[in-house]
TrEMBL record:
Annotated protein name in UniProt: Gfo/Idh/MocA family oxidoreductase
InterPro entries found in the cross-reference section: Gfo/Idh/MocA-like_OxRdtase_C, Gfo/Idh/MocA-like_OxRdtase_N, Gfo/Idh/MocA_domain, Glc-Fru_OxRdtase_bac, NAD(P)-bd_dom_sf
Gfo/Idh/MocA-like oxidoreductase N-terminal domain mapped to chain residues: 129-252
Keyword Oxidoreductase found: yes
Entry similarity comment: Belongs to the Gfo/Idh/MocA family.
Region (Disordered): 45-65, 458-480
Gfo/Idh/MocA-like oxidoreductase C-terminal domain: residues covered: 264-463
Lineage, top ranks: Bacteria, Pseudomonadati, Bacteroidota, Cytophagia, Cytophagales
């Protein structure tokens, strides 16, 4: 490897000092191989007195990337010659604080979206430990895998009625056998110091009991939606958590999902003027009449509390205001084995302040369809797969002069279950109220009760006026 005297002298002149990235690139940009120089710089950078700069945000590590020298080779154990270049660490800011992201050498122009920031996971021993209650579809298919994308949360205990499931799932996720509990032993979570949060993932009718029993263990509670089967149960759950001085959050994952948050921001900032009308649908198909979702006592209702709730809660989240009146129409095919106890379809309108109308439909007997469109004065925003676990597709339309501009917006995605759990962990670690507390679930329950009443009585039902914005929500989550 050749190196000019000029470069060598320059580098030696800077030894013991910081060589700025600009200076270095200037040198490297002359096409000089800098392997030797890089070694010199590396020893300068790692020398004494640099640790303080780690927190000051200056480049704290790194040897600038050397230009690949085609003459450099590596001889493999078998004697083969392999083209190589020197492995180095380009300049980076590495703050000592784990919550601050490492800032890597930038290389993209601002013509394209920027990547990053680099994730800042907490060390495992600092993460909030969760006990998952109920090992059904949601826990096994979504929540436990999502912990892999969490930065502040980890699974540490399981509660189930199936010893076989407990044994197998505990092995798969590295949970100690002594941290597996039956439903009867649920309260023993109190003595498990690793558990700081309990996540209730049981059929709807069990939410109230397991939140109230869970609160008595002194652990914080994250509860799946719908919060419960009645507003009265919701009130008891909120009171039990307040009395036990534990936090209660309802798992409204959509409020932590990046695309829905993007639409919320665009609606609230009046990107296309004031919103006027929302059309929302969440429909799917089911098959098993024996499943709890088709039993009124266990599910509380049919399509409405299970999936229609997403249309209701997300519209409230997008607008920030509360409906003042609902009008609903419900249907179940006569004699259909799935819909003897719960509704097959619910279609309803909600009147919001300022004349905004939200028109929703939810169905248990159609191919899946999950979208909404917010029509504003000067444009619309359409989110396909709005309530799905992934695959959100955001389109907008507005006019510019004679042109109709129709855009598809893409933003970085994030596992919404991980974002939701990490928000709750953040609330526990920083002792602040959750963004979607019990009061948010209670408000939805009150509106759903009005929707059922309207469908039953065939007339609009008024709701108490709730002035203000985000009245039932806690502080905004930090960016996921
Ligand atoms: P599931 O039927 O797959 O699992 C329910 C679990 O509860 C099972 O492990 C089951 O053994 C246990 N269980 C305890 N007592 C039971 C009883 N009496 N009858 C039936 N099961 C009983 O259900 P799931 O789809 O995992 O839903 C669980 C909860 O999560 C529900 O409240 C549901 O609304 C909610 N959920 C939320 C989302 C979301 O996206 N946030 C998605 C699916 C389900």
């Amino acid at each position: 490897m050749s190196i000019t005297n000029e470069l060598l002298n320059t580098v030696l002149r800077h030894a013991g000092q910081e060589v700025s990235r600009k200076e270095f690139l200037n040198l490297a940009g002359r096409g000089l191989a800098v392997g030797v120089a890089a070694g010199t710089l590396a020893s300068c950078h790692s020398g004494g007195g640099k640790a303080a700069e780690a927190t000051a945000g200056t480049p704290t590590t790194g040897t600038p990337a050397a230009e690949v020298d085609a003459s450099t080779t590596y001889t493999a154990p078998g004697g083969q010659t392999v083209a190589s270049s020197e492995a180095v660490s380009p300049p980076a800011k590495v703050p000592a604080e784990v919550s601050q992201p490492i800032e890597l050498e930038a290389w993209k122009s601002d013509v394209d979206p920027q990547s990053g920031p680099v994730p800042t996971p907490l060390p495992p021993e600092q993460r909030v430990g969760y006990a998952l209650v109920g090992l059904g579809h949601l826990t096994l298919e979504e929540l436990l895998p999502a912990f892999g994308e969490c930065k502040k949360s980890k699974p540490v205990a399981l509660v189930s009625g199936s010893p076989e499931k407990l044994k197998k799932v505990a092995r798969q996720y590295g949970i100690k056998p002594e941290s597996c509990y039956s439903y009867q032993d649920y309260e023993k979570l109190k003595d498990n110091a690793e558990v700081q949060a309990i996540y209730i993932v049981l059929p709807n009718s069990l939410h109230a009991e397991y939140v109230i029993r869970g609160a008595s263990t002194g652990k914080h509670i994250l509860c799946e939606k719908p919060m419960a089967n009645s507003a009265q149960e919701c009130e008891l759950m909120i009171a039990a958590c307040k009395k036990a001085n534990v936090k209660l959050m309802i798992a409204y994952r959509i409020q932590y999902e990046p695309y829905n948050r993007q639409v919320r921001d665009m609606v609230r900032s009046r990107k296309f003027g004031p919103p006027k009308y929302i059309e929302a649908q969440n429909s799917q198909s089911s098959a098993n009449p024996a499943h709890w979702r088709h039993k009124k006592a266990l599910a509380g209702g049919g399509a409405l509390p299970d999936i229609g709730l997403y249309c209701l809660n997300t519209s409230r989240f997008l607008l920030g205001t509360e409906p003042t009146e609902v009008f609903a129409y419900s249907y179940s095919t006569p004699g259909h084995p799935l819909f003897k106890e719960v509704e097959e379809m619910m279609s309803w309108q909600m009147r919001f302040p300022d004349g905004v109308i939200v028109n929703c439909v939810t169905h248990y007997n159609t191919h899946d369809s999950r979208f909404y469109r917010v029509s504003a004065e000067r444009g619309w925003l359409h989110l396909d797969n709005a309530y799905a676990y992934q695959g959100q597709r955001l389109q907008t339309s507005h006019a510019e002069g004679p042109a109709k501009m129709q855009n598809q917006i893409t933003i970085p995605t994030k596992n919404q279950f991980a974002a939701e759990m990490d928000h709750f962990s953040e609330c526990i670690l920083e002792n602040k109220p959750p963004h979607t507390p019990g009061e948010e679930g209670l408000q939805d329950q009150r509106i759903m009760e009005a929707i059922y009443q309207s469908a039953r009585e065939g007339r609009p039902v008024k709701l108490p006026a709730v002035p203000g914005t985000d009245v039932f929500r806690g502080p905004e989550p930090k960016p996921a």
